[in-house]
Each structure stands twice: as structure tokens, then as C-alpha cells.
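Each lists chain and fold; for instance:
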Amino acid sequence: MPDAAALRLDSAMGERLARPEYRRDFRDRHAPFRNRRSWKFERRQHFEEADPSREALRGRDGEQARRHAAEALRLFARYDGPRAPAARERLGTDHGGR
């Protein structure tokens, strides 16, 4: 990884963008690097989902965490979105959980 100190940003130099503007700006800036190796540096971000499987892991209950994750995967496989085929494949079904 490049030297993280060299990546420090001066917050006075930037502006906060709404999501659509951020996505458009990111796409425009990322285009020259598409399909090439690059680093994406993000700062001050922390994200955690309120998820029963994650809570079980925090409580060191691996078996309960696996049950929650398996149930989430079964529910996800019911939908016909772009990632559903992978979920159905992982479950070993070809009917979408229907």
C-alpha cells in the first residue's frame, strides 16, 4: 500500500456531495483506472449493520451465526435480482427458493 501519510486530505479543499453527484464524480474520476490496478482511499468511514448473524458472532456463538446467515441466504435466493443466481447456486437449488 502507498504511504498513508501521503494520502492525507485537507478537508478545507473539498465539498460534500449528494449521492447522485458523488457517484457521477466517482465514475468520471475512476474511468481512466477501470480494468487496471488502483487504490481507493477512503477516510473516516465506519459501518456496521444490525444483523442477527453478526450479533451472534460477537457473542461467540458460531452455530447461531451460521443459522442466521443460512436463513438470510435462503430469503435472498427467493428474489430475482442480479445476485440471486449465485445465492441459489450456493444453496444448490435452481428454482429460486420458490
